[in-house]
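anyone seen this seq b4? input:
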Amino acid sequence: MNTKSIEINFGATADAEGKIHDKKDVTLNNLVSGSIYQYTFKTTVNRQDNDDHYLSIDIMGDNIDLEAVTQSNTEVTICTSNSPRLFISEGVKIFELEGTDYKDGDIVTVKLVIEFVSSDIQFLTNEVLLQSKKDKISNPICVGISDHILNFFTTDGLGVKTFPLDNQGIKNISMRPASPFDFKIIASSMLIELKVQVQINFWHENELCCSALLSSEIGLSPKMVTSTNDSLGFKIENAVVNEEILYPYYDKDKIINYFQSEQAIADTMVIISREIVSLDPNSKYSFASLANNLSLPNIWQTFSGFRVHFERFDYRIGYINNESVGFLFVVFSIESLHLPSPCSYLKNNNIESTLVNQTRSLFKDWNQDNCKPLTNWITLGFSHSSLNEIVEPFANQGMEERQTIHGRPVSGELYYYFRSRFDSLQINPTSLTLDLRIVDTGGKIEASIGSGCTKITGSVSISLIFEGIHAAVKIKRMNKFFVLTPEIAIDKISVQVGNTPHPVDQIIGKILTDFSEGPIRVGIALVMMKQHEIPLFLGEYSGIVYSLVKADYFENESFVLTVDANIPK
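predicted toks r here
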């Protein structure tokens, strides 16, 4: 079973300088993920003077620093939603407790519980790919997102709008979001519910007369927008406005003085409510333009050399940290264009990823309620057939090479070639491997010894024998990209020479001695092991940092990458 949380218990006695220190070696195995979403300190202090003032706790380990200010016999839970995501990798880790300002002889015990992000999104991603295969979608790949990630990525979408209420522009109304957008993916109805609270301010010149809060629920459906690049957006299907209007600021005297009556404010609010529901794109109060300012992360633009075609949306119900959530999966088919295999697509300056070209909402600090931080995960799922389609242009390769030797008494030229053929990619429980075979190989050696009338020349055909070809596909960080790259190793390459008469056999032997197997093996290995990067997603874009959380291998079914999005401090 995967580990969702760990508990570490520290104990220390303060020294004469009032300092505490303890160190623990902790073995971490089978983590559900290395991504921490919250940690809890429970501190107990047996004080010499019974003075229970606030205590500073600092625990460091595995490139993380966990701090809290607490009192004895209390628990403090720290959420990480507004911090760069904290990661712990598997293995033996050293955690150290430090503290100061204690009294000599104080006995301090600290229980630290670290809870990791957990979700079934990876398994749901695999289910979506299997269903897509059953439905005859060719080489399916998919992107999985939750309502958590929608709340993280989406800007306010409305901004601040100001409209005049009279011809002189003395009286104005302004609209702005009063809270962060709250998305919920409703799998049962195949819609996305968006709750929006709008603050409507009534002004006379620069003087605020009253503020009203209007709550609404909007039903959205995702759609594919095709322009220069395909992108994911929303279509508003319906809108409902809550009849109850709150007035957090209301100056009756100003309203009567500047707007003649309170009824004028009430009538305007009725108009605004009606036009929001109508979704009239020509109305200045309508939310119709809201859909144009919302977009979903679209990562498929990264696949240069392939045709990626949108197929459908798929909705699922799952969980994040034991909370039931909705997931939206965007399913595509992928087809290789069979372009010449480049050394690296990353050298193409035209490559751009539109994974997300937005900045996060101004309300990023409003997600701390009840310590339920956002889980900023995106999955990229690749079916077995799609991986074969992606890797095939990079794995089928060949080369020809000429090498010369000049000198006395022997000079000559070695020519050889080979072609390899990619048969299939295998998804194993913990890795991706390639089945490669050599389908054609050959060459010749031309050599001469002596000069003038004593010069002897000859040539002979050769073939290459490959022993132990090992091929795998790895995911790596290359510059700002995360890429798939085939890795190929060869145990041995032997040169088999045809029959040659004496003394040509001695000449050929001399050439092989000079070149030996080494240069041939190294030359071929350099070609076969040359890194062909297949970009999957950017590690950094528009101020957002993307980290690879984990890779899941569903044997002979799919390969799923989980990516975490965050904003660094």
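The CA atoms of residues 88 and 552 lie 17 Å apart. The first helix runs from residue 121 to 134. kinda curious what u guys think
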